[in-house]
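Run: sequence + flavin-adenine dinucleotide -> complex structure.
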Amino acid sequence: MIPPIASNFVAGESPGAALSHVEDLNRQGVGAILNLLGEHYHERPAADEDADAYVSLVEDLAARDLDACVSVKPSQIGLGVSDTAFEENLARIVDAAECFVWIDMEDHETTDVTLDAFERHAVETDGNVGLCVQANLKRTPDDLERLASLPGKIRLVKGAYDEPKSIAHTKKARVDEAYRDCLEFMFREFDDGVAVGSHDPKMIDYAAELHAEYGTDYEVQMLMGVREEAQVELAADGVEVNQYIPYGSKWFQYFYRRVRERKENALFALRAVLS
Ligand code: FAD
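>> structure
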């Protein structure tokens, strides 16, 4: 069972627990992006098992009236085994899904194959898939030029992986500047909307300004357990908000990452342990 301190960031171990969180969230006007926790598999059976779980999840979602979609990690569904394993499993999930399917972006060694897979499915499904791109990577402005002509949605994030200086901006101020530049390009050039994957109030305000200037649709995506009041407030103000909801038995590593990345999260965890 997930201890109460972790359940702030993880919806539960089972799909049922995650779906019940989605129901609560939808009642507050916030949509859901479900992510089964798991990554970096190097054996095909583990990758196939999680792909099976996603197929079953998207079939379950098709039978329910929920505002929910899924987001998958390439290394969870086979990229660490072979490009073929990844592509076969992604195709199974996309084919089974009536809901939107997001593809998360992992470290820079996976960028090309992930972009290629997205492109194929974006065209085949006429835009029922989305891709995450990372503003910290120096290549991203060029990737956005390529993505602008494709159907499907793009989620812009700052980037969660420690990348080498030769290919990535590593100073926070420079990453923020790159994020703004990418966001401006996306609002100006994208037809299918923009997903702002950030908790940063400055970036969210900037997105609202860009929406006023260019009229492009947008949504804000934030993680479960992070600025949840702001998520509900933004939704009440008419902004489309979707919460990224991790669930599954592999919750510990994810929870530990959340606690480490921010002093406030660590203090919250410490207080919960002491009380
Ligand atoms: P930061 O730059 O970390 O912080 C900026 C400001 O945001 C802070 O000053 C504060 O005001 C606010 N803030 C940030 N965190 C908190 C908090 N915990 N509590 C309160 N306020 C806070 N990365 C990838 O590399 N690949 C992915 O596929 C990917 N998918 C993601 C999907 C979603 C929906 C989200 C939200 C993030 C995803 N990320 C992904 C992670 C992303 O790259 C960043 O590492 C992460 O979002 C932190 O950057 P930030 O823009 O949210 O804010």
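>> summary
The radius of gyration is 18 Å. The domain at 6-274 is CATH 3.20.20.220 (TIM Barrel).
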